[in-house]
């Protein structure tokens, strides 16, 4: 009789700074940044090469395989 547990389902991940990070179901860009300790006003963000404004991070749901980029915002005139 085999009492082995079923294998864990594959975990969804995103890549940030070249490193994989696990996603929780329904994770948003804002939640990921908070979990990783990034101050929202200290970084600008892009997902899969498209800029995501700070005001949209709470509603931007991440998907498995997304490429997330954080960079210093460009300010000045």
TrEMBL record:
<dbReference type="InterPro" id="IPR003749">
    <property type="entry name" value="ThiS/MoaD-like"/>
</dbReference>
<dbReference type="InterPro" id="IPR012675">
    <property type="entry name" value="Beta-grasp_dom_sf"/>
</dbReference>
<feature type="compositionally biased region" description="Pro residues">
    <location>
        <begin position="1"/>
        <end position="10"/>
    </location>
</feature>
<protein>
    <submittedName>
        <fullName>Sulfur carrier protein ThiS</fullName>
    </submittedName>
</protein>
<feature type="region of interest" description="Disordered">
    <location>
        <begin position="1"/>
        <end position="21"/>
    </location>
</feature>
<dbReference type="InterPro" id="IPR016155">
    <property type="entry name" value="Mopterin_synth/thiamin_S_b"/>
</dbReference>
<dbReference type="InterPro" id="IPR010035">
    <property type="entry name" value="Thi_S"/>
</dbReference>
<dbReference type="Pfam" id="PF02597">
    <property type="entry name" value="ThiS"/>
</dbReference>
